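Below sits our specimen:

——
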Amino acid sequence: MSSTEAPTTPQIVADLRVVKRGCSELLVESEFVGKLARSHATGKPLRIKLGLDPTAPDIHLGHTVVLNKMRQLQDLGHTVIFLIGDFTSMIGDPSGRNATRPPLTAEQIHGNAKTYYAQASLVLDPSRTEIRYNSEWCDPLGARGMIQLASRYTVARMMEREDFTRRFKSGVPISVHEFLYPLMQGYDSVALKADLELGGTDQKFNLLVGRELQKEYGQEPQCILTMPLLEGTDGVDKMSKSKGNYIGITEAPDSMFGKLMSISDTLMWKYFELLSFRSMDDIALLQRQVKDGMNPRDAKVALAQEIVARFHTQQAARDALATFEARFRDGAMPEDMPEVQLGAGPLGILKVLREAGLVVSGAEAQRNVEQGGVRVDGDRIDDKSLQLSAGTYVVQVGKRKFARVTLTG
């Protein structure tokens, strides 16, 4: 059954609704409907691929946007392949970069990969997940195989990639090995015979290379599903450990809860769509309730409890809420507070207090810290030299002055 002949049944429509929830783009949708129809007709699950390079030892909520989609596809009965890019990590992904990304050493890759799958299994069902390492087929290629692979893609096509074009026009060096990254990621799709590949919007070029290489190797081309990049707690940059705006999935419950409560009321709805397991109907109902007068803080509490319970326990989520509320009991946090963006962190606490308008002078800032009148996210601050890194914080002076302060990376 070809994709152009695919019948659209109520089940396929329902499956497609799940697949497209929160996604940025599904290419090519008609082809994917055909793949779904064939899968339903034959009982053969689709092969869904997600590749992650272990560039850091821990996974944060930004990573779980695509992992959540993989879990949804698992629940629809398909085979998901969690691909650890141990080979491609040694090249370094140039996506979105203005300079060559330093490649990782084999030791760094091995150390990071050890925790990756264990943490991903907090989202995926391990019993229905195929875990692979792309060194399995990339290492055996050798020099001859690499040259043959490179002959299947042109420099002109490679230079269509936005970050390469920008760097070339700006005179910023592009190393030849960086061209190998999208080629090797595309070759992963050939090796795995992927029907669908997932990635962030910044991966679209690489995913499309996979489609082209599959055609070159006589395979039916994969469809691609891109997911939005999740902004971090600062509400500005995508969630990243290097930006300091991340929420790690293995963080302590209190820390995870507090960070989720620090996001803006506007960003909260994107977190609901991309991170919550609630139905879109439930989320729409919450939005209507907030519009009709419900405190948005109550919706945010529900989100924070759901996420903490997922990665810890229901009891941990209840305890985190109790701890959070106790922090603000003495000086109740206002429903609305000024939102202040101060530029790049790290920034000293005394300067933060002045620039956020919570004090009128450095002397007043210092006096309030010395007297125990300054809190950050509910914790009393007694260190005048404290530096706040990139992120979003609720900063309090005394019992009445609050500001939600964002420091960019």
In short: Residues 96-100 have pLDDT under 50 and may be disordered. The first strand starts at residue 25 and ends at 27. The CA atoms of residues 319 and 364 lie 35 Å apart. The first helix runs from residue 10 to 20.
